[in-house]
Amino acid sequence: MRGWFAIPLWQRVVGALLLGIAIGLLWPAGAAAIKIIGDLFVRLIKMLVVPVVLITIAAGIASLGDSRRLGGIGGRTVALFAFTTLIAVSIGMGFGLLLQPGSGIVLAGVAPHVLGPAVTPADQLLGIVPVNIIDALAKGDMLAIIFVAVLLGIASVVSGDAGKPVVALLQGLAAVLLHLVRIVMEVTPFGVLALIANAVAGSGMAVFVHVGWLALCVILASLTQMAFHAGLLRFVARLPVARFFRGIVDALIVAFSTASSSATLPVALRVAQDNLGIARPIASTVLPLGASIGKDGTAMYVGLLGQFALQALGIVPDAWMLCVMLLTGAFAAFGTAPVPSASLFMLAAMLGAVGVGAEQTALVVGLVLPFDRLLDMTRTVPSASANLTVATLVARAEHGLDEARYRGHTRS
Predict the structure, then answer these.
(1) What is the pLDDT of residue 119?
(2) Burial readout 83-95 (b: 16 or more C-beta within 10 A, e: otherwise)
(3) How many other β-carbons are positioned within 10 Å of the β-carbon of residue 50?
(4) What residues contact 344, with CB distance under 8 A and at least 6 apart?
(5) Are 380 and 253 within 8 A, CB to CB?
(6) Do 73 and 398 touch, CB atoms closer than 8 A?
């Protein structure tokens, strides 16, 4: 056991990932037998998500202690996420237009996947304010939980001396949750092994045969988006890029294996503080917000899939349609739930804005959905990278970055 824990967590996880791929390809029955381990791992992660979001955001805001500083952090965070999201949609659309992954796709015989009613921007806005706080917590309504947490944190700050006991309680709970996350993350190698084995056993490498160009576009666009993050770190924050990606590898692996930004949040909080040297108040404010609105991978994929769908349907977009798709794709990504395959169902909002009907959209979703798990795993990685990049940039601007820890990091 001592030798096991002496190996850095990310190395254990990478080894488990490779072993999971081998089991999925060579022994599918074995993958099915260990499926329960992956399910337990996902449940452990999901168990932490709601308390982590509620407590860490409230504690992070309360720890700032200055409403003017809070405004600076919030403004920078939202502006940076809006910027990276627009860039991500542009990258996805660009690769779609360049490589034409939907050209020649035959939709005849594809079973449509029924879509739910489209959610209007007004409904999304109203949904931020919960009618019942307990119900929002029980349902895991992230935007509503974030709204409550922000109000709780602000109220603790403006209450002055009367609010100090609440601030101390929130900070204590946040510290306990962080240690609980560290305990749960030790299960990661076993969970990743089971999840990857089942994903590969279920789809194999068929995704790269049946929707090969789309898969290639997702991979290339994800790498391009992460290169953009690297550029922000190098030229805006003036920080070494290799240190950053070495420090966040645990979070990227969890993002890939769970395909969920929300599930990645607990480990992202840990690596932000332990490996990147981001101050707890900033990490606890920026990262939970990023898990809800920082969806670079989703934005990229919605932009790419929009072009894929138009090409499959034989529609040639003009400049106006591309502009509309860029803006609606960005807004759709902001409102996407941080769960696997959620971005597929935001496609209706983008295509509907340029006149594509729900029936045609359902055909495209029906074509992609069987292969979406591995694609979803891939595109969640740039979302996790974006969240930690924005947190690092905000920490740098707010003098909340321990640069010695950032630069001196050698292992997870």
Answers:
(1) 56
(2) ebbbbbbbbbbbb
(3) 18
(4) 305, 365, 368, 369, 372
(5) no
(6) yes
CA dist 406 and 272 (Å) reads 9
Work out the number of other CB atoms within 10 angstroms of the CB of residue 150.
19
Token duo for residue 9: 């967590």
Lookup: tokens for 188:
């990661």
Q: Is 401 in a helix, a strand, or coil? A: strand
Return contacts of 162-168, CB within 8 angstroms, 24+ apart: 163/62, 166/62, 167/59, 167/62, 167/63
What is the pLDDT, as a whole number, of residue 200? 75
The residue type at 309: A
Size of the chain in residues: 412
Beta bridge partners of 401: 278
Beta bridge partners of 278: 401
Report the half-sphere exposure of 235 (CA within 13 A, side-chain side): 6
54 vs 45: CA distance, rounded Å: 15
pLDDT at 313 over 90: no
Question: Tens of pLDDT along 175-186?
Answer: 888 778 778 778
Question: pTM to 2 decimals?
Answer: 0.68
Closest to 294 measured CA to CA, from 398, 389, 178, 181: 389
